Amino acid sequence: MFKSKILSSVLVAPLFAGVLASDDAAAKGNNHQGPDFRFALVGDVPYAAGDVAKFDAVIDDINEAGVKFVAHVGDIKGGSDRCSDELITERFEQYEQFDAPFVYTPGDNEWTDCHREAAGQYNPIERLDFVRNLFFPHPGKTTGGKRMRVRTQAQHPAYREYVENVLFVRKRVVFSTIHIVGSNNGLRPWSGIGEDPENPIAERLEEVAEREAASIAWLRRTFREAHRRHAKGVLLFIHANPRFELPQGDPNRAGFDAFLAELVDLTVAFDRPVVVAHGDSHYFRIDKPLMAPTVDGPMRRLADVTRVETFGSADVHWVEVTVDPRTDNVFHFEPRIVDSNKFERP
Prior knowledge:
346 residues; alpha/beta; Purple Acid Phosphatase, chain A, domain 2; 15 strands; disordered N terminus
C-alpha cells in the first residue's frame, strides 16, 4: 500500500507545476517587497488557562511586527485538557486574531492523545476529522486575518483527507507542512479507550501507516518542487521532535525512522540549506542534529540541515525567522521574548 501511494504521487508531478508557478507573482501583490521577509514560528501554546492571556500578548507582538505569515507547529492544548469541540474551537478562534496568514500542522495533543482519560477518552480518528474540518475549511487556502493560497496534498486523489499537508513558495524558498506528531508519530497504543499493546487496534495501525505514506510522498513532492524552482532553501514544518539523537532502529524513534532516512537522501541530493521547524519538547533551540553516513563509513552531521524548535508552554514566546535568499544560510532565527510573559523572580 505504501509503494503504490508514493508512486502515484511521483507520477502526477506535472499536475502541480502550473499552480505553484504563480505563487511568487501572487506574493508580490501581498506586500512581499524586497529580497527578504520575516515570519513567526510558534507552537505548543496555549496550554493551561494561564497561557491564554499570555498568548494574546504574543499575538499582539506578532501583529505589531508585521510578519508575512504565522506558522504554528501543533499542540494547541495541554495533553491532559479535554479534547472537546468547545476548547478546540476556542483555540481556533484565538488564532484567527493574527493579522497575517495562519499556517498550521496538527500536534498529538489535539487528536492522537485524546484517548487519554483526562483528555476525555475520545476516538482519536474522530478528533482528527474535527480538527481538519475546523482548521482547514477551504483546502488550498490558509486561515488567519489574511488568506494565503497554498498547494494542499488533498488535491491529489490518493490523499484527499490530508488537507493539512501544504506547500508554498516565497522568494525561491519552498515551505512545506508535514503531519508528523508526537507519541512516536501515533505508534503508542490508545490505552485510554482499552487498547492492549498485545492486541493493537487495527484502526490506529492503518491510520499511522497511511499518514506515514502520505508524509513521505509529500516530503518527496516538496524537494521535487525545490529542484524544479532551483530553490535557495527548504523549510519543513512538523510537530514532533523526531528524536534526531537516537539511532535508527531505536523503538523510541520508530515512528520517525522513515521520515529521517528520506530526509537524509533528499537533503544530500538538494545540497542547499534545509530547516526542520518543530515543537513538542517545549525547548527553544537551534542546532544541527541530523547524522548521516559518509563514504568512509562513520556517521557525521549533515551540515545542510538545521533544526529550530520553538518555545512551548510554559514559556509563551515566539521565534522570528528571517528568510534572505542572498545569504549562504538563507534562514536566520531570533527568539522574541514577550516581556509581560516573563516569570516573576524572587
